Amino acid sequence: MSTTSSSAAAVAEGSAARRFWIAASSREAAFATYTPFLLSLAAGSLRLDSFRHYLAQDAHFLHAFARAYEMAEECADDDDDKATITALRKAILRELNLHSSVLQEWGVDPTKEIPPSPATTKYTDFLLATAAGKVDGGKGSDKMATPFEKTKIAAYTVGAMTPCMRLYAYLGKELGVFLKQDENHPYKKWIDTYAATDFESNALQIEELLDKLSVSLTGEELEIIGKLYQQAMRLEVEFFSAQLLEEPVVAPLSRYRDPKDKLVIFSDFDLTCTVVDSSAILAEIAILSHQKASQSGSDNVLDRTKSADLRNSWNMLSNQYMEEHEQCIQKLLPPEEAKSVDYDQLYKGLEVLSEFERQANSRVIDSGVLRGMNLDDIRKAGERLILQDGCRNFFKKIGETREKVNLDIHILSYCWCAELIRSAFSSVGCLDGVNIHSNEFTFEGSVSTGHINRKIESPLDKVEKFKIIKSDLDSITPSLSVYIGDSVGDLLCLLEADVGIVVGSSTTLRRVGKQFGVSFVPLLPGLVEKQRRLWKQEASIFKARSGVLHTVSSWSEVQAFILGNDSS
Q1: Is residue 568 a part of any domain in this protein?
Q2: What's the domain count of the chain?
Q3: Are residues 289 and 148 in the same domain?
């Protein structure tokens, strides 16, 4: 799923509206898209009663939107701005007329008052309070003394309305894809409304208006608009999350699976959770440790190799690894692409890669590069390690909710030093409940000896550990497993899990997987298809070794799918 819509990119560079959308879209847009309501709607399995209830709630919201436009128009000082707001308000009134006609088609009296839900009221109260100038301790638009003050309130109001327009345009494009798969989609008319170029034009129009109104604002006032934008996006997610559903839905996974069953999350670490690979970080610590010892005159405790020579040694090892890794990949690929997943052949092929990884680790140990590191330096490096966007929040929520949702979390990693992983998670408050399975440095006192306690260093080691953990859990209670990874080394585990999720864009992983018959499907379309199968009461919605892996563009998608908005 893209983190920004192509149309949002059309807004001018430096645009405030564009910045606000980019900040919100990687998280809130994912949480909205993966709500049970929108997944069911996209699959065409949403029951009509649920959709009628949504339309009734949305009508309350649209009335508030129209009123907020009127209030913004009263505050605007520029005639062109007033004309733009008037045009946008008329578009909202046309949308309300569409709702009324759809409700009438399905036998619902649009004049019959259906009370707003708490989530709807929360959103409309926020919107109208903003339009009234009750922002950040504001005194209200009716008490504003100058045209500039009133224009500022108009900017705040538009800032709170813009995310709704952009989010609906985004959802229209995302869900419009599913109309091509079903010519008789029951919610075609609704999806078409928001996928239409007219609606996209309205979204661009309000974004351009927000940019224009923001030009004269101070940095502090722009920050207020940013907060209003984020708050509006969160309220939109709550609005979709609160829609009534009677049918079972494949997401969030924590609610889909039988509550008595254990949900088991497995994840790789390097480049799945992190932005950079840990091996380079550990090598850099070793090099700096030698340099520091040399400068302090105490290098008799450490190997006397100069830091420059040590860096050259590491660079040679690193370059050799990359060159031979590609040769190894070429060697294990079958001559012809498999028509369906061939797990056994893939396992045999990855035996070659496993042997290569073991030999590469032996070369590093023999070089002495990893000797002389202080444990405190390793921990400090772990604390500074940058996690992928959304990863921290996912693991933090896992820690907070794992007992309530009957969930276990395991890290399976090639990392040479598990203490680095522990420090990385601990520093951002995510260590609670995380089981780490990795290699360990050996130490004399608090200084590394250069040797590694080698526990997991190959694809085969990873998958065998995965199987042991899964088997132990299954002997106690049934479980549903998810594996999250980014590389060829994760491929066997990704396939063994009931749900395999690929983060990142590794071309090598896709090249190897495809050659062995593995399919890579974006998570959203994959879940919509599974929702259709669930609707048809097909068994085995999630199944190990299915040969299908799901791709995501962010950890927010992972969290939205597994935990949903209730835990966001």
Answers
A1: no
A2: 2
A3: no
Claim to verify: residue 63 and residue 181 sit in the same structural domain: yes
Beta bridge partners of 409: 265, 434
SS3 assignment, position 472: helix
d(CA 132, CA 502): 46
Single out the residue in 246, 274, 300 at which a domain terminates: 246
CA distance 127 to 163: 12
Chain centroid to CA 201 = 28
pLDDT, residue 452, reads: 97
Same structural domain for residues 316 and 230?
no
**Coil, strand, or helix at residue 545?**
coil
Nearest to 376 by CA among 448, 298, 323: 448
Give yes or no: 236 in active site. yes
Strand 479-485 relative to strand 262-267: parallel, antiparallel, unpaired?
Answer: parallel
pLDDT value of position 310: 86
pLDDT score recorded for residue 548: 97
CA 317 to chain centre: 34
447 and 504 co-located in one domain:
yes
Angle separating helix axes 147-176 and 219-241, nearest 10 degrees? 40
Domain final residue, candidates 246, 279, 297: 246
- pTM value is 0.91
Low-confidence residues in the chain, pLDDT < 50 = 1-12, 141, 299-303, 567-568
Domain hosting residue 54, numbered range: 3-246
Domain assignment present for 491: yes
Distance between CA atoms of residues 544 and 474, nearest Å:
14
Please tell me which residue in 73, 236, 419, 529 is annotated as part of the active site: 236
Count of C-beta atoms within a 10 Å radius of residue 439: 18
Q: Are residues 284 and 136 in the same domain?
A: no
Q: Do 155 and 40 fall into the same domain?
A: yes
C-alpha torsion sign, points 102, 107, 109, 114:
negative
Q: Is 223 a catalytic residue?
A: no
Active-site residue identified among 73, 75, 95, 164: 164
Residue 480 falls inside a structural domain? yes
Residue 180 in tokens: 């091509």
Max Cα distance, the chain (Å) = 88
Measured in degrees and rounded to the nearest 5, phi and psi for residue 409 equal -130, 130
Sign of CA dihedral 13, 19, 21, 26: positive
SS3 assignment, position 565: helix
Q: What is the DSSP code string of 348-378?
A: HHHHHHHHHHHHHHHHHHHHTTTEEEEHHHH
